């Protein structure tokens, strides 16, 4: 299958000498979920932000056959790439609806109304609170709003940075259920950064393991179906030399 996203020899530097990502290459096919796994500081968010255009990077980023490295965020969003950041960054002072409108700032008013209806359909938890201040939502609801806002522009590639961060296990399950629904609905591809390996396994097709800014391993989800295989992958790619491994296998 032709790739939707092709990342080639991506490197990210913070300052002249601090290299956070080193020659990372991977492909994402339309409609597939790709996970980036690794301990804290491995470079996962930096890769996502570089693809989303939020930070500068070296290397090639090809989206839908076109090089996009020189495009600003706005143009990447227009082409269908949306980054949903790790800490949600919803605007608490605005209502749930207004937050969704922000996500659809590039589309027509009619399209925006349709998209809001679709998002609220997908996330009934926030549908009943659509005219309330977003600050009143629970952590899980805020995460749903952040994902919903990401969906407003009708993306073809959603970059989801730790959607389960700080959520109780039941809410993690709910968020992942909805991601499963988004996934089965169509051609939307997702690149997911997650610490929860078990949930990620259920959702994703491909997994890339990162350590110190490099991809050190790759598995298809079907190669990691049983606990032993998962543990072996964690030990081989993430475990021993990381000072602080933080990958939930349960
Ligand atoms: N704005 C920044 N300025 C300087 N260094 C940074 C900046 N952002 C990240 N880094 C460094 O780059 C490296 C990779 O960070 P990054 O946030 O990409 O890792 P991560 O795998 O997403 O970590 P986590 O799971 O903790 O979010 C780390 O060493 C981090 O300290």
TrEMBL record:
SMART domains: AAA (SM00382). Keywords: Amino-acid transport, ATP-binding, Nucleotide-binding, Transport. The keyword Transport applies. Residues 5-237 form the ABC transporter domain. Signal peptide: none annotated. One of its GO terms (biological process) is L-amino acid transport. GO terms for molecular function: ATP binding; ATP hydrolysis activity; branched-chain amino acid transmembrane transporter activity. Pfam families: ABC_tran (PF00005). InterPro entries: AAA+_ATPase, ABC_transporter-like_ATP-bd, ABC_transporter-like_CS, BCAA_Transport_ATP-bd_LivF, P-loop_NTPase. Transmembrane segments: none annotated. SUPFAM superfamilies: P-loop containing nucleoside triphosphate hydrolases. PANTHER family: HIGH-AFFINITY BRANCHED-CHAIN AMINO ACID TRANSPORT ATP-BINDING PROTEIN LIVF (PTHR43820:SF4). Belongs to the ABC transporter superfamily. This is Branched-chain amino acid transport system ATP-binding protein.
């Amino acid at each position: 299958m032709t790739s939707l996203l092709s990342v080639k020899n991506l490197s990210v530097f913070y300052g002249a000498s601090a290299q956070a990502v080193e020659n990372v290459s991977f492909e994402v096919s339309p409609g597939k979920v790709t996970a980036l796994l690794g301990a804290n500081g491995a470079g996962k968010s930096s890769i996502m932000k570089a693809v989303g255009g939020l930070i500068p990077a070296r290397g090639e980023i090809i989206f839908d056959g076109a090089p996009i490295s020189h495009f600003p965020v706005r143009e990447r969003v227009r082409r269908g790439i949306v980054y949903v950041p790790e800490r949600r960054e919803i605007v608490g002072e605005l209502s749930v609806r207004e937050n969704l409108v922000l996500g659809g700032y590039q589309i027509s008013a009619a399209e925006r109304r349709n998209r809001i209806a679709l998002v609220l359909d997908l996330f009934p938890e926030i549908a009943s609170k659509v005219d309330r201040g977003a600050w009143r939502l629970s952590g899980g609801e805020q995460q749903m709003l952040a994902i919903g806002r990401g969906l407003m522009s009708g993306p073809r590639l959603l970059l989801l940075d730790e959607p389960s961060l700080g959520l109780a296990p039941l809410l993690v399950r709910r968020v992942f259920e909805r991601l499963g629904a988004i996934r089965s609905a169509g051609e939307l591809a997702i690149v997911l950064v997650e610490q929860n390996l078990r949930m990620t396994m259920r959702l994703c097709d491909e997994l890339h393991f990162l350590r110190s800014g490099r991809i050190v391993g790759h598995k298809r989800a079907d190669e990691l179906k049983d606990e032993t295989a998962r543990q072996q992958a964690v030990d081989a790619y993430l475990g021993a030399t990381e000072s602080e491994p933080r990958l939930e296998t349960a």
